[in-house]
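Lab notes, practical 5.
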Amino acid sequence: MWRAHAALPQWTGCCRATSACRALSVSARRRMDHVPQSLVRGNRSSGTGAENLALNERVQALIASGHDIINLAFGQAPFPPMDLAVKALQENAHVTQYEPVRGIRPLREAIVKYHAAQDELEFDPDNMIVGPGSKELIFLLMAVFDGDIILPSPAWVTYKPQAVLAGHEPVVMELSVGDEWRVTPEILAQTVLNKCSSKNKLLIFCNPDNPTGAGYSRDHLQSLVPVLREHNIIVLSDEIYGHLTYSRDHVSLAKFCPERTILSSGLSKWASAGGWRLGYSAYPSQLSALCLAVASAASHTYTSASAPIQHAAVQIYRNIPASQEYSRHCTRILAAVAKYSRSELTKCGLKCIAPVGGFYLFVDFEILRPHMARMGMKTADDLFARILDDVQVALLSGSPGLLRPEQELSARLSFTDFNGADALGASQTDGLPLDNALTPEFVEKYCCRVVGGIQRLVSWVSENTK
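Output from the prediction step:
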């Protein structure tokens, strides 16, 4: 049973949050109107930016102006980083030189050993690039790649804009909730046969997935390998959430198709250091030409990742037992919040698969469609703007940013708007074995903002589907 907490004021009626949000959007568009579009090349002229970042900035502005908005739209680790990470950064703050483009060798070697211990994977530090976030390295790969880029739908908001910025018109592969939003051999093969025209193909593959929370077992991954080899598909396996898999049994595609898999990861999610901007890509020797091309592009763009952060990251990846224990505590909390959130949402008729890792639920609001006309709504944007207006809960619409159809009533819900320091402290001192699941009472006590947001949604949906 949900209980209101003192830290979470009860919502009452409409605070006109959406009106303020729309005003901010109009203001941004007016500023863009003063930029001559003739200065911008081709289809790069939209200027809208990443939808998740833009929405988060608007929500933060509303919060700063006094609105009690619960932000379930933005996926950011809520926990403080490990003490050893903070200490290592402090100790290396004096390091100011430009480091090697591919990253300092001690860090690349530490990452190799970390994945050997965590995932039983073998990488070569000479075929690895460390950069200012995995996001930049994914973009540079797209920029140098010659061929078709295949994106799943749903997809993370930045994959398609990155492909377009890199000069590609991406091929969109429609996934199905019946397959729990996973890529299947059949869907992949049909996409290639019906939509691809190039000999070379690059599949962008997220495991666990953002935005759906879907994950892949050994059998799922092995079933994809024949299709990858038959159709000459290279895979960028985005495993930034890999070490936040709730069951702690994450398996990488690199285990079964190493010669075609580029593993992408970093510190932002499992190590709660998104703002540090440190990520990496590990290439197989068979794709060393691609690795070299990305490193060349890196040398002409960002030069190298921040030196103090690279040196601090060495200690994070070298201290494998401490890192593993830290990520297990974080994962245990996220698993409990995910379970609670899905359980409550499905009680009122909303639908979503059970996530296997990460921060997200991909929620189907179709139950509201028969009632939308009565409430004066026609589109998904209308629906989620109304939810923000009525109950001050921000969600990220599935269309268009997540590549979902315009008529679909889907949204990504991120269950990370809670005080991670308090939750992590309680988890680390409760004395329970880490294999023990946390209770709903723990979630209600230490993750009360998410609980409040979920209950606002549930109440609003229940009221408007009577």
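Observations recorded by the TA: Residues 1-18, 23-32 have pLDDT under 50 and may be disordered. Residues 340 and 440 are 6 Å apart (CA to CA).
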